[in-house]
Amino acid sequence: MMKTFDFAKMPIVDIINEILVDASKKGASDIHFDPYEDYLLIRIRVDGVLMDYAKVPDAYRDYLTTRIKTISKMNITESRLPQDGAIKETLEGVDLDLRVSSLPVSTGEKIVIRILDYTRSMAGLDELGFSEENYKKVLEMISVPNGIILVTGATGSGKSTTVYSMLQHLNTSAINIITVEDPIEMDITGINQVQTNSKIGLTFATALRSILRQDPNIIMIGEIRDTETAKIAVRASITGHLVLSTLHTNTALNTIERLIDMDVQRYLLASALEGVVSQKLARQLCPHCKAKRKTSEYEKMVFKTVLNKDVDEIYDTEGCEHCHDGYAGRIAIHEVLRIDQDIRDALSNGKPKEEIRKLVYGTGNVTTMLQDGLEKVVQGLTTFEEILKLIELEDDDKISSNSALKEAIIETKESLAAKEQEGEYLGAREELVNQKDKQKNIYSYEDVESLDI
Fold first, then answer.
1. Taking the CB of the first residue and of the last residue of the chain, which one, N or C, has fewer CB atoms within 10 A?
2. What pLDDT digit, counting tens, does each position of 120-155 carry?
3. What is the DSSP letter of 286?
4. C-alpha closest to that of 169 among 247, 244, 281
5. What pTM value is reported for the model?
6. Confidence of residue 441 (pLDDT cuts 50, 70, 90)
7. Alpha-carbon distance 397 to 392, whole Å?
8. What residues contact 385, with CB distance under 8 A and at least 6 apart?
9. CA 232, CA 48: separation in Å to the nearest integer?
């Protein structure tokens, strides 16, 4: 349901405040201000899905954009170059910590506000959805005196939340922890946090060189972005420091390959890398309305093939006042790799990717992301369809060797895509029918049916 504002009577300051507070209360992670020719469309991302929130008439879009840039300390006279800003306010009793980005596009200036939520990080490692086995592996990793631990995943997959939870667990008065970040997303008492500034030459690499002279026990690097940072991080980890960082890769095996591509020497990587935590976020089933249903034949095949379990019933979405289309919140799907001696030997001896893959996934030491996701489906935390969209099942060794199952999965994905397209069609048709009622039959039924969507 789109929200409406009386822009003619309501001050822009109050409208912006209401948008920020309301989006935060709805659990949104981002607010998008998308410029079109005749209006500005506001969308919010809830549980990973963007949804329309409000429309701003063209006459008021500049006022709204200027207000956002002002409170986020951007240059309001500059609209030709991208800018970054931040907002830290308490509005209506809601503490807001926001990151703001502006980007010039063909139709104007697009602004995106990221709403930072630290509640998961503050709750601790045991609240992040790790399975019992994976949780034990993570505790073993962060208990080592030196080495490098990487948390990987796509943008917005909760990497920072996991890393901050690790730091919270390790943060004691007996340990010197220093971080280098861009930006500092969460202030933690007892931890020395460095904000990079490329304009004055304070990059991850230059900050790391100085940090090594500050007698650290633990170093956290916000993100490994280039070869120089990767090499310094690895060398720091083999000289007596525990290094935590993030990387944009999808799986544990991809992480090893990426570091090798960054020209990190194999013998250094073999001795430095302690573990990899790869993760994605799946929408979580609403506890108020989720309902059981029978599994289909191909779903049974997937559960049997991947988990070696006979699963006759799983939970699915219903929808109620407490959720969005049957989902409420998100849960992490993990793949946790603890580097053992066999993998170290394969890396240092220059073994090819296929052999390393067998050591990573063929020994049963790693619960793949697919296995972890399906276990959470069995537990009623998410849906089979959500895991199907999130993870490429065909890439899993057990799936790829089963041609009948692979074919069934392709058919199911096509069916899901068709349902989504049908939903878009019906949504557009319903919107035009509503317009027809409101605008006294301006649109005919034929106009609606001829829509090209």
1. N
2. 667 789 899 999 999 999 999 999 999 999 999 998
3. P
4. 244
5. 0.82
6. very low
7. 11
8. 416
9. 34
